[in-house]
Design a protein that fits this description.
mainly alpha, 23 helices, globular
Length: about 500
Amino acid sequence: MNAAVATSVFGVFMVATVALGLFAVRGRGGGGGGLAEWSVGGRSLGPVFIWVLMAGEGYTSFSYLGAAGWGYNYGAPVLYVVAYMSCGYALGYVVGPMLWAYARRHGLVGITDMVAHRFGRPWLGVLVTVLATVFLLPYIQLQITGMGVVVSTLSYGTISLEWAYFIAFAVTTGFVVISGLRGSAWVSVLKDVLVIATLGFLAVYVPLHYFDGFGPFLDRLVAEKSEWLTFPGHGDSGLGQAWFISTSFLNSLTVVIFPTTVAGYLGARDADTLRRNAMWLPGYNILLFVPMLLGMAALFVVPGLVGAESNLALFKLVVDALPAWAVGVVGVAAALSSIVPMAVFMLVIGTMWGRSVLSHLPRLRERQKGAAQAVVVLAGVLALLMTYTAPNTLVRLSLISYEGMAQLLPMVLLALVWRRLTFRGAFSGLVVGVATVCVLVFGGNDPVWGVNAGLVALGANLVVALAVTFATRPDTDPRSDEEILAHDEFDPPTAVPRPVEA
């Protein structure tokens, strides 16, 4: 009976999710317009949609599963998530409008476009597309896995993980192919309402239900589990203060040029929308403390969870303490926290390939949107198949996803504010950075003397990029600084924009 009730609640909300994606593009020709409309919402999304979209990208299934699991296993080190996201939003106040202005002026729709345009080499956009796809595919697989675990758990085990994985793939692929970024923004509204409501409720209910309040819970945590409240946390994790600082610093830099973040930037209707958004977004991070604390609460309620099972710490509390319909609602909030970021990851991969790779094929030059939509389906199918057949392959790749993406910082960001950076310098630095991070991470040397390996690799990247730049002649390019570099001021749009949205 419990399984039927919870599963019914979940099914109703999944139908509503797909319907909301379709409703988002009503009157826009079944997905509306070309690649820019599909991939960046026609550059017309206002503060509300940009806020929920970018918050949705940051609040994933990790927030329900991984954050609680880290809280359960380690404790204090999990706070790096709050630290880097808040610092990244602050950097986004400056970086977001700059990238938005540059992309709008030149009609670009992603970081691969920007790199190819900045250095005047289309093949460089192809290379960055391949690298970014390798670093993004693990995130799709992780969201499929996360949603699968949620669906299987909320159904009290009646839905197998295999079917739950397929549901995650089918729902996400269906609405993102049709509605693009705009649909993701609309679904983010539903997701955020449920996330705020469910986590707000759990933050009060769980301590009262199990400990008679926050005070007794925290008193018991300090008395019995004090190791979880200091660095490096519980156990021999190696996640000490140096790791916390270096990881927070590296990730705060990386998140502002992450392809999914840039997709959110480019969907805005103006630069002021991004500035206001950067001021509001840190408030959303308050919610992250809830699963972290509830993960530590689970230490007393369901002790002895090991390995991947610890990621279910929060849901074991939920299933144990709440009626079936409430379990279904919490499960829907967690599932949507997988669907929204997964949709944006898939959309970004499709956009990169449609714009930077397939558009160079004569037959597809005029069909960039259709080609991008086809790539979305292929990326989803690949991630799903690897989830079934070789899950450890993508999980292993996920170890270098953020650190690897960080190596694009000089080529994407530094190059847009400093013309002197040459192609040879940026390319050499990228090669050294990616090679270094692969050697360190796959060699089991992360962290390096307590420091995040990605930051060490980025340091080597920058040293090589600068050394090669100053050792070689400046690139010969007839374009002016205005045509090459990013500036905060921007030209008015040449085409009449669509009506702006909230």
